[in-house]
User: Fold these one by one.
Assistant:
Number 1:
Amino acid sequence: MANEYPEFFLRLPNGGPVARGRQTDVLGTNGSRKFVVGPGQPVRADVVPSFATRAPSSCRLREKLIADEGIRSSQTWPGFLETAEEITFNSSSEAAAVLLGRNSNGWTNWKTENGHPLSDYMPGTWWGPSRTWLVRGSNVTGLDLVQRMWLLEERVTLAASRLRPGVRQGVSKDALRTFVLEDYESTATYSQKQDLVEGLHAFLSRMKPGDTVCTISDGRLYIGEITGEALQQESEDQRSNLSRPVTWQETGFPYEELPEELQQKLSSQHDVVDLTSVQSVIEGLGLTNEELADEAEAIERDPSGELPALTARRDLDLPVPSQELADELHVHDVKWLREVRDLLWDEKQVVLYGPPGTGKTYLAMKLAEALGGGPEKARVKLVQFHPAYAYEDFFEGFRPREHPDTGEVAFRLTPGPLRELADLADREGNRHIPHFLIIDEINRANLAKVFGELYFLLEYRKRSVRLTYSDDDFALPSNLFVIGTMNTADRSIALVDAAMRRRFAFVELSPRTEPTSGLLRRWLAVENKDSEPADLLDALNARIEDADFRIGPSYLMKKSVYRDGGLDRTWRTKILPLLEEHHYGEGIDIERRYGLPALRRTLPSATTGTPADVSAPEPPAAPTTETPA
């Protein structure tokens, strides 16, 4: 009965007066509990900009009450309105919305004199922070219940045709598991029963009044607010045995226009999906940045905080490389760096390929740090592939782990570097910040084995897939970029397959083209060193016929090279062994052909200026998206 509840209070904004109301057990047509506000209670005079969009029925009711003088100017509180009569609202949230002039969760905003929310006094409900849910209703055994029932009757339903009667809100997952195993014994597979338990538990025990609920129908996303408890009832068509009252917004949002991170979550195939991780994105749908800012000011949020929807609205962007970065990396032209940046922006995945020593890994790390906002370790992660590398190492798998309390060692599901970085990039507040995964020697692993079902996500970033081990729905965040490096001299590894070629853009780093061909000479000039090492490297590469085995400049860009005997030592121990391997079995005298004495004889004479017997460098080339042969 109504007198079983204490009196509840609602503070109006701007330090305004306090309104009083009482909860009832009388159910409205959609199952919400009605709420009563007596005469002489204060009402806010204005409304926030989004009120008509976010709570259209409450907005219309407020306008009607004002037109009919059920709400009028207040003589008690100047600048406010007040109720002229007792008003019975369909729910506590509707009452709060009309009085506050904005969408409101009445279950938490109406409080007792001691500050306890209305939700504390409602039976059989689970409480905590507001959450957002997706419930599928457009194809329930072939019917679109969204258009046929949900929007018209202001409810959301879940089919549970074989679930025994008497299952109440707040039931434990363990009890539900027992019910489902018994009630659906021969009519569902084990996997279907597990999914059903998860969906039923979310609908009955995790959802609560004040939560947001979404659904998709006719290519549009519809959004509403749950306004009451779950009910189990008979359903003639067995499609809507479980029901919750919902106040729906009147217009849906075109699916194709939704933000990418929201489309990823909506692509999950479960009947009930927790969308709380993108709750702020949903809150901002249909509102411009200016409207969000106006609403934030109207609601008078803590000025030290930030409106979540505004945070979620921040656009992802990759900084444009500057001339300073080009100078730091000794790149010949900043346009080359900017084109690599554009490839990353368009494709999300890039591979830097070329012979050893061309600076592929160094450039990948420096680019990631510059484009990701600094060398913060959490945003840039490097892994190195090798022939034994597997999906379980890269993404997730069961590994032996010691329990921190008992010391017991057992196999536990453990995330790999990609899962860890993706989870970090997908956190609320991080989605506008670029994150980078660098995969060194990407062609040394069995890529189909390492990536598994993730290959699909590299190409379709707006979709999610069901994971092999955790059974989670997973999508690659749009702010996660992948930079791979590939050594073209490593002929022991099979050629890159067509699936990878389609998913990555390829950028060549070769001694025959810029920025690599002139890199050592530019570095020597900055370091005020003699140009002889660059001349020797050009002469060496002119004698190597196979472009994939030409030597990159990074071997000669170390301080140790320029100590006494350092150049000769580096040449003998670093460069010549590479060429020994290349010409193995051919009977070539490597020292005579590629040694320093032989190369120095080809350089111009210091006295006569005789030209070197070397081939001229090939002209600079822009980054290419062609896959190496």
Note: The chain is about 35% helix and 20% strand.
Number 2:
Amino acid sequence: MSVLLIEPFYGGSHKQLMDLLQEELQEDCVLCTLPAKKWHWKARTSALYFMQTVPTSSNYRFMPEHKLARLEKVIGVKRNGDAYQSEGLPGQQESRAVMKTIDAHPESGLCEPQPGLCTTQHEGLPSPAAAPVQAEAPERTNPCQGEDKQHLTFNLSNILSGLDYQQRPLHIAWPHRWEHDKDPETFFKVLMKLKEQDLPFHVSVLGETFSEIPDIFSEAREVLGSSVLHWGYLPSKDDYFRALCTADVVISTAKHEFFGVAMIEAVHCGCYPLCPKALVYPEIFPAEYLYSTPEQLFKRLQNFCKRPDIVRRHLYKGETAGFSWAALGSKFRSLLAAEPREDL
């Protein structure tokens, strides 16, 4: 039995999960993706795109008989041996038109077994030679272009060397995509207010950047000046985790979050989390790590800047072990290897 993985936003934590599943499940995997950009359009239209492009195979069609019968009546699906071909699916032309506005190149979709991982071929699936070109990498820009090279490389150890650990200023990390749904405006306005009051702190602004970067980033980079330890995406996972391990506090100001992998990773690296009292965060973090307003976030950071030792002595009161692959791997395997049931 094969496992079909579909990911319309193949980047960041989405890509991390897909790659982990492919590597760890030890199954025959087929991964279909689209580039990690234009999230809102992908949410609206990717189902139509994949409906037309995912290769038909009896190796992973888990749909029960009663749902197949209903599907035949609704969209005219016809049986063809063990596979199913669709004819005249509604929205077909509309989907093609919309997807062309999303990705200028039709080959940007990936639908093939990934080389070096699970590469077993199946009847009816495209071979690597005939498969579409792999999904294009997310567009990244270098927000530090033209600046001193020390901001382009990971140099936290050099900056912090020679300073007594307890005497260092509070180190704040923001490890999120540089996009509006992560609300960088609120985050930077709080930091600028700390700067206005001459409170000592360092900040590392991490996370992926894309073709469009909110204006607040360039404004904040100038205002924060020497408070910046690192500014920009770290492609090396080791460097990324090293940055989190040197930080004291990790902040989320997100307006849109289904889980928050970056926050869990930072807590695992010893950071004190401060998250909105909204979205998924109250389900994961104890109440003392939540704030309701930007003013509350500012007051918490104000106190931490004055007494960073309080944060550094703190032991996290939540639990992160339950989110590890060691805890969840068997559950994923059981779920994806399950026999088809009538309640699916």
Note: Residues 39-53 form the longest helix (15 residues).
